[in-house]
């Protein structure tokens, strides 16, 4: 016998592939009259569930920089409403005019939150569900479908300076390697809702667009160091000029994260360390702007000590998980006469991940994008573009799990066009469509229509209808268990794209100079959601598309500037999911486990400038319970105090989970991490 601790190599959540579809996640539920006939029932669960659960959990980890603490009154609500966003229409437009459910996390929001990691910064967006599963793993989604027992969250598109960090391995994001120096982030645009017309397949329930500062805004040297009971980190950045028109910055950061613990207090061997370095250069002239940037990283994460899952077989040597990679991106913008422009972007991204003894992967992606915004033609503002992506995936399989073929090259090609039609001064209609081709399902059609009515100079009513899809990943099509015949999981060669038809209405207003708010109602209709089906021979299972359903909800948030020194922000999201199997499917566990989403979430954030040199921030969150597996509801209170010691030196201390007692956010009760009080002290020096 060997013992494997299933939860501890999780990087994004507790995603357990249940090879016997008649078992539910919690407890054992039998389908009447059929369980006895299954040849795989006696041994498929301890072999396939444990081995693939272990592996899939490992696969799915789930103002200027030199500015001192800002006076909240220096950026009014009117100025916040006029922040330029690009994620909604692929062109710069004021946030107040964006016909979508979009929330912007500013650089000052991130600084005053006291967070040290990118996923934790995303908790500031009320339209996102961010659940931490382990020291390195997060499940992040919008509007539901935040993973299941057989998949990671896979319906969000995440971009860093225009570079997609989605992996075709499972259509999700390895959050454990998505590090940016938070002091370099200018803003994060979070769209909840479909954006497939402009951004392509997999932008089903939202887009997270992380935009870093131009190099000209990060001149000089910045050094930051932080230490707490859960992690410690250090960063160094330097920026300067290149001739008359160019600027650059280089950076280096290091993070060391400590083990988390189980509910019973036992430690979890999920500690990690990671080093990352990078650069950005910008050149600008009257008509041209060129950006070149790159990053390189390397790190390691512990795997579990012997634990809770018993698997017959040889003794396994569980080495550290190793991650590494690099990326290089170039973006060129050329402004033409009459308001037209051309954008060309290209990037290369290599990622490597080894999870001994189960799996190793090297993935290379090359991506080229072209976009042309035409000169306005009367009432029409047209933008069109094309995208081509090529990937080379090289997998080292094992006897436990395999992707077949082990080596696979894939291609994606797409064309899109969008027309913004001014019907009258206060009314605009936007029509768009995208044709995208992939190697698994062929050509997909992604249309959308949006209507925006400027009811007053400071308010906007809008409505939208869209169709978008999530194309199959390698996990959907090419996964086999065990790694050689006879298979218990025999891939999913007939898996098609998951489809969502989405209807939204929203209102964004600013009734006074001190109050602003946004309200969105949405209704999603899903079809062809992924399931596990039993083969006619009853000797193996395979992936299918035998589930459909609906999701409806509300998103509301707002900000009140109580005084020049005091600002209150809050948000509430509500969600109801109703999923069902199609005739002929027997995957009863899928209905219970696909929507790992709370029914509601609420957040309140208070920011106070105590003096010209000190500030205090508090964030209160409440998250409703999850049902399958059960995660109790929880409330957290975080507090940060910041002190400007000198114009070039800032000290802060952040206390998280002040209510104590520990809480879980994601996963099965026997394997998930619990998060208790933590303290983090940070120094930032600029010179």
Helix and strand topology:
Layout: E1 2-4, H1 44-59, H2 77-81, E2 84-85, E3 93-94, E4 101-106, H3 107-113, H4 118-121, E5 129-132, E6 138-141, E7 156-160, E8 163-164, E9 166-167, E10 172-173, E11 185-192, H5 196-199, E12 206-212, E13 220-228, E14 231-242, E15 246-257, E16 272-284, E17 288-301, E18 309-311, E19 321-335, E20 341-355, E21 359-373, E22 380-396, E23 402-403, E24 407-424, E25 427-438, E26 442-456, E27 459-470, H6 474-478, E28 479-481, E29 489-490, E30 498-512, E31 515-534, E32 541-563, E33 566-581, H7 588-593, E34 600-609, E35 614-623, E36 626-627, E37 630-631, E38 634-646, E39 649-656, E40 678-686
Describe this structure in words.
The protein has seven helices and 40 strands. By secondary structure, it is mainly beta. The chain has a single domain, classed as TonB-dependent receptor, beta-barrel domain (Maltoporin, Chain A, Beta Barrel), CATH 2.40.170.20. The strands form eight sheets. The chain has a 22-stranded antiparallel beta barrel. It has a five-stranded mixed sheet with strand order 4-11-12-7-8. It has a three-stranded antiparallel sheet with strand order 23-28-29. It is globular. The N and C termini lie far apart (59 Å). The relative contact order is 0.16.
Considering the chains and any ligands shown, give keywords for the structure.
mainly beta; Maltoporin, Chain A; 7% helix
Q: At CATH's second level, what is the architecture?
A: Beta Barrel
CATH superfamily: TonB-dependent receptor, beta-barrel domain
Strand content: over 45%
Kindly state the number of beta strands.
Answer: 40
Distance between the termini: 59 Å
Helix count, DSSP H or I runs of 4 or more residues = 7
The CATH class name reads: Mainly Beta
Give the CA-based shape: globular
Mean pLDDT: 87
Which structural class should the secondary elements be placed in?
mainly beta
**How many independent structural domains?**
1
Low-confidence stretches: 1-56, 60-73, 306-312
